[in-house]
Amino acid sequence: MRLIAVLFAGVMLLSAAAAPAKPVTPRAVVLNDDLKSPWGLAFLPDGRMLVTQKAGSLLLLDATGKRTLATLAVPPVAFRNQGGLLDVAVDPDYPREPWIYWTYAEQGSGAEKDLSGTAVARGRLIGDALTDIAVIYRQAPKTTGAGHFGARIVFRPDKTMYITLGERQKLDPAQDLDGTLGKVIRLNRDGSVPAGNPGVSKTRPEIWSYGHRNPQGAALRPGSSELWVNEHGPQGGDELNRVQPGRNYGWPKVSYGCPYGAPKGEACRYGGGTHEPAYEPPVSFWVPTSMAPSGLVFYSGRRFPQWKGDALMGALAGTAVWRVRLDGNREAAREALFGDLRERVRDIREGPEGYLYLLTDSGKLIQIRD
Q1: What percent of the chain has pLDDT over 70?
Q2: CB-based burial of residue 4 (10 Å sphere; 0-12 exposed, 13-18 middle, 19+ buried)?
Q3: Band of the pLDDT at 134, cuts 50, 70, 90?
C-alpha cells in the first residue's frame, strides 16, 4: 500500500508539473510620464535603467523608473525628424566591463556637413558619468535626409553584436554590397569585424544580411544566436523577419507594401510582392496599411506564461503592442494588445523581474505587470 501511495503521489506531481500555467491578466502602470521623445531602453544588472532621448540626452534612472539619477554626456547628435540619439545597450560582461553602447544619427563634417548617418559609440559607465567615449562604427556612406536610421543593437551569446541599419529612404542602396545602407551588420565590441560573417561583400565584411528598409526592432530568439527584426514597409508591407546570414530580404526589389499614395490592393506591390525564390520572405507582414513596428522582444519571463516564447513588438501608427505566436519559423497567430493605451510604442523590453516595459513617443515609461 505504501508503494502504491508513493507511486500515486509521483503521478500527481508529474500531472501538476505538466499542467499548463494559468494565463495572467496583464495591466499597464505608468512609471514615468516626464520623458522627452524616448527611443531606447536598457537595464543594468541591478535594475537601474538607461533611456535615450532623441534630442541627445542619455538618462540613468533608478530601478523604479521614476527618478533620474544622472544625465550622461554623449557626443552631439543630428536631431532632426527621425534622427537623434537612438538605441542603447549594456556590455554582456557588465560590471566587470562597464561599457555602454549607443547608436545615433551623426552629422557629417567638412564636405559632408549636410549629410548624416548612423553611428555606434561606447563609453565606460563609472559612477554617474561616461568615460573613454569613442565612436566604434559609422554607416557608409553618409547621405542626405533625416529618416530610416534603423539603429537597434543586439548582443549575441558570443558577445559580438548585431546593428540594424536603415536605407535612409534611398531605396536602391539596400541592395548595394559596397555600402551599409539597408543592412544588418555584425561587429566585435570594439567595432572590428569578427570571424564567421557570411562574406557576401568583398569591401564590407561586416555585412550580415541586406535588402532591409528600416529595421527598428531587433531581438534574439531565446536559446539561440538567431536574430529576428521587424521593419517598416512603405504603404503596408511591415515585416517580421528571421534574419539569416548572407540572405537578401528584398527591399526595394520586392515588398508586400505599395508606393505611397497607391490605391489599396495587391496590384501595386513592389515586384509583385512574391519574394521566393530570389529573396527571403517575411515570417509575418501587415497589409494593406502599416502599423509601423518599433522595438521587439521574445518573452522569456515567468509573469505571463501565456506569452512564453512569443514575439512582442511595439507599433507606432498602430498604437499597440503586437503579439506574434510562432510555430517553428512560421506565424501561428497574432493579436494586438494594449490598444486602449492609444500610445505610439517606441520600444519594448523585458525587465529583470519578468515584467514588460514600454517607451512611448508621448514620453511615458509604462510597466506591464500582473
Answers
A1: 95
A2: exposed
A3: very high
107: cell is: 552629422
CATH superfamily assigned to domain 23-369: TolB, C-terminal domain (2.120.10.30)
- CA-CA-CA-CA torsion sign (258, 259, 264, 267): negative
Buried b (16+ CB within 10 A) or exposed e, 326-353: beeeeeeeeeebbeebebbbbbbbbbee
- How far, rounded to the nearest angstrom, does the alpha carbon of residue 41 sit from its chain's CA centroid? 10
Marked catalytic residue, from 148, 212, 232, 275: 148
Residues 76, 59: Cα–Cα separation, whole Å: 15
What DSSP state is assigned to residue 82? T
Cα separations in angstroms, 105 against 13, 38, 45, 100, 114: 55, 15, 27, 17, 12
Cis peptide before 259 (omega within 30 of 0): no
For the chain, give me the number of helices (H) and strands (E)?
1, 24
Q: Does residue 212 have an active-site annotation? A: no
Report the run of H or E that residue 106 belongs to, with start and end: strand 99-107
pLDDT in tens, 209-240: 999 999 999 999 999 999 999 999 999 999 99
How far apart (Å, rounded) are the C-alpha atoms in residues 135 and 276? 38
- Backbone φ and ψ for 289, nearest 5 degrees, come out as -115, 165
Residue 19 has pLDDT above 80, yes or no: no
- The Cα 32–Cα 41 span in angstroms is 13
Residue the block writes with cell 500515486: 8
**Rounded Cα–Cα distance for residues 180 and 230 (Å):** 18
Question: What is the distance between the alpha carbons of residues 173 and 116, in angstroms, rounded to a whole number?
Answer: 15
Mean pLDDT of 107-117: 96
